[in-house]
Amino acid sequence: MKARDTDWDGVRLHVVTGKGGTGKTTVAAALALALAAGGRKVLLVEVEGRQGIAQIFDLPPLPYEERKIAVAPGGGDVYALAIDPEEAMLDYLEMFYGMRRAGRALSKLGIVDFATTIAPGFRDVLVTGKTTEAVRRRDKNGRRVYDAVVLDAPPTGRIVRFLNVTNEVAGLARMGPIKNHADLVNGVVASPETAVHFVTLLEEMPVQETIDGLAELRAAGLPPGGVFTNMVRSSLLPAEAVEAASAGRFDPDELALGLKAAGLADGADAAAVASALAEEIVEHARRTELERQERASLDASGRPRYELPLLPDGVDLAGLYELAESIRTQGAA
Amino acid sequence: MNERTGGHRDAPVLDLDAIVDDRNTRIIVCCGSGGVGKTTTAAALGLRAAERGRSAVVLTVDPARRLAQSMGLTELDNTPRPVAGVDGEGELHAMMLDMKRTFDEIIEAHADPERARQILTNPFYQSLSSSFSGTQEYMAMEKLGQLRRSGDWDLIIVDTPPSRSALDFLDAPERLGRFLDGRLIRLLTAPAKVGGRSAFKLFNAGFGFVAGTLTKLLGAQVLKDLQTFVSALDAVFGGFRARADQTYRLLQAPGTAFVVVAAPERDAMREASYFVERLAEERMPLAGLVVNRVHRSPVSGLSAARSSAAAEDLEARGEHELTAAVLRLHADRMQLAAREHREQEHFVSAHPTVPIVQVPAMPTDVHDLEGLREVGALLAGRWRPAA
Ligand SMILES: Nc1ncnc2c1ncn2[C@@H]1O[C@H](COP(=O)(O)OP(=O)(O)OP(=O)(O)O)[C@@H](O)[C@H]1O
Ligand SMILES: Nc1ncnc2c1ncn2[C@@H]1O[C@H](COP(=O)(O)OP(=O)(O)O)[C@@H](O)[C@H]1O
Ligand SMILES: [Mg+2]
Ligand SMILES: [Mg+2]
């Protein structure tokens, strides 16, 4: 079937990063649903061993196995995989060397913990190796098994090291099979088939991290994707009112009249309530002004931007589909 | 109803001024899960302590860039720098933790020059010292120990690293220790160490197998680097461990006060709960909980329900558009405040004796001394909005 025009046609690996707690897992899940919509098959991958996907889809913990977890709007399937580095290592040894037993012995000795501690690059290459294998995988007719893979990735501070496995591993292993494996991963991750998306809030630190992260990514020759601004509060006040309030020109008299009309207060009381509410408005206006500045900094990065609303009651399954829909209408999928 | 604890009737009020003013308080540790405001709290407490006459140093781990600049921290140089613009008799110094340098210095202190050189140039050391997820916690603790031992500081305020779990700060040094005591490490270092014949044989057989597999995967050079590194580190590790133990005891001393920071959200409050329980287990002195970025309303008498009903009414009548919008905004805020209140209740009922103070969410980020001063006053529960 023919895909609709989206900003990321041709991208098959969507990596989702961002500052901790900004909504990486949520956005990755919604993006997977959005990409699957209309009859496609998408794999959603998590790598931090936290069962975030299971939580968000309200499922029991996922095993190390690709399984269908959701149906997208208009048909289409989302599969999920929680990659466990331990299992990925066994897979790897089996697949390339037929050494499953040796793998188990190493596993018992705590090799993965060891690698995680002393050389996270070794662990990362196992995880990204498994992910890129799914990106490249073809069925017996030579067709791609997945139309797209979405990776709920480590946070901004670690993303370049995580993806730049060749570089990380090269410092430790200049040749040999691990090095070759890393090169294979790099072939996918550094190609135009990949896009690294950032999730941010309209706050100073996550925006700064996004901008720094984009620069780091470029320096490492990795392909930057879009910027997803998450948890955006819709502004209820008319723009003029916000402007007036942030300039300290908000006039509570009109508000007092309104309060009277609504039967909420009268006389001196209405004036008192109005001026107290005006305090709330001034705060809101300052916040809105800050958000405007953060938006401007993000725009200056030149990356495509998408905004996702703050869901007032948190993210349940229905909310996830709502976010997916929003991602589609904005053309990110 | 208690204003400062946000209406949690039973919770005692956390009096941070009393803690800061008490000359016996020598260390304040600000901890909590990521993004809740640990660094901001640490810096604000430092400034407040200094302006109340203490000679304080703040050890920050990852300050927001503008906050760091406002304290005169422009580079990561591991040295406390005086902060300009502090009022009063006291003084404030601030520093940013350089974890790699701190690690290097420990190696240099505990190994002879030749061995230190071997370690510092080893690729595995470089990877460990710059990216092990526990290195930052370990080094923050080490730096705290150094500052305390130097005796130069009347009050040390430490920020903790931005890990997902607040417990990492207490667990990381132990984790590094467990790692170095691990079976694989012993296996890798065994041929060099074990003298007894049977033990040698046993280890050797195991080693042969492990080494064989690893060589196949990584190449012989990697294995050699790894072994050199592990045995070199092993030789200095006794010293490491003794230091970490010493710092751990410092955290249990009566002059230490833990300030747990949380946001009024489910995950952060849960983390705060775990941490409080853990401190009790470790017999570490808890000062109390700061609930940061709380939303309040100056018009708390006007409920969300009444406010939205009135807005609806105005909208239906097509009158007073602005008032209707303002009432919607207010209803949202009241709802948010109610949700935040509920999230804190679990904590309060589980830990009814833990003192609490709430700090309102500022409309903008905190990135200058003025902002820190304001947060400091809020922390002390003594801030009054300008008329
Ligand atoms: N648009 C939204 N509206 C409301 N709540 C949201 C939204 N996006 C995310 N959240 C909530 O914010 C919290 C953090 O989201 P999430 O777990 O996706 O972040 P993360 O970046 O994956 O975090 P971590 O860094 O811990 O992995 C969750 O409770 C989630 O439900
Ligand atoms: N009470 C507050 N009101 C508004 N913004 C705050 C408040 N406390 C912290 N912040 C902002 O939140 C962000 C994260 O704070 P920070 O102290 O760096 O968190 P942590 O050290 O726990 O990761 C910073 O941009 C800071 O300015
Ligand atoms: Mg997550
Ligand atoms: Mg911090």
Q: Which structural traits does this protein have?
A:
heterodimer, A: 333 residues, alpha/beta, Rossmann fold, 2 domains, 14 helices, 52% helix, 15% strand, B: 387 residues, elongated, binds adenosine-5'-diphosphate, binds magnesium ion
How would you sum up this structure, described in words?
The complex is a heterodimer of chains A (333) and B (387). With 333 residues, chain A is α/β, with parallel strands linked by helices. Chain A folds into two domains: 13-233 and 310-329, Rossmann fold (3-Layer(aba) Sandwich), CATH 3.40.50.300; 239-287. Helices cover 52% and strands 15% of the residues of chain A. In chain A, helix 3 (85-97) packs antiparallel against helix 4 (100-108). The longest helix of chain A has 34 residues, at 267-300. Chain A is elongated and about 85 Å long. Chain B has 387 residues and is an alpha/beta fold. Chain B has one domain (16-379): 3-Layer(aba) Sandwich (Rossmann fold), CATH 3.40.50.300. Chain B has 15 helices and eight strands. In chain B, strands 3-4-2-5-1-6-7-8 form an eight-stranded mixed beta sheet, with helices on both faces. In chain B, helix 12 links the parallel strand 6 and strand 7. In chain B, helix 5 packs across helix 11, helix 9 packs across helix 10 (197-218) and helix 9 (183-193) crosses helix 11 (220-252). Chain B starts with 15 loop residues before the first helix and ends in an 8-residue tail after the last helix. At the A-B interface, helix 4, helix 5, helix 9, helix 10 and helix 12 of A face helix 6, helix 8, helix 9, helix 10 and helix 11 of B. One magnesium ion binds next to helix 2 of chain B.
